[in-house]
Amino acid sequence: MKKFINSVDSMLAESLDGFAAVHADIVALGEERKFVRRRKPNLQKVALVSGGGSGHEPMHGGFVGHGMLDAACPGAVFTSPVPDQMLAATKAVASLLLNASPPNSASKQFPLRPSTKPCAMFLS
After folding, report:
1. Distance between CA 44 and CA 66 in Å, rounded?
2. Cβ 104 vs Cβ 39: under 8 Å
3. How far apart are the first and last CA of the chain?
């Protein structure tokens, strides 16, 4: 046996489905599996979105969570994510942030206002 995958064409989708199922309390899959995002936003930090190719696994998805990335866009095998993926992830994270209600103590220190730049993007 050389590989633990069913098919190269379905490897990314199957990996993302499994990852999201195991960590359903922390992450959610975006529409059409374009990205993985945090379930709960952190209103006291700049939102970060990362992307990268899925060489042997969709690695960047593993960095989504508490104190880490807010979303990750997995590209196809050995391919970077396409701009549509990055845009969809950024919009999803921005929507989550803008619709969240900050804790009472945080609302005074960190008032949440609509912004034209709700996310910082980091591409690898």
Report:
1. 12
2. no
3. 32
CATH number attached to the domain at 8-101+115-123 = 3.40.50.10440
Pairwise CA distance, residues 112 & 123, whole Å: 25
List the alpha helices (DSSP H) in the chain: 8-22, 83-99, 104-109
User: pTM for this one?
Assistant: 0.74
What span, in angstroms and rounded, lies between the C-alpha atoms of 2 and 45? 43
Choose among 74, 60, 64: nearest CA to 38: 64
- The domain limits of the chain are 8-101+115-123
Q: Confidence class of residue 34 from pLDDT cuts 50, 70 and 90? A: very high
97 contacts 24 by C-beta, under 8 angstroms: no
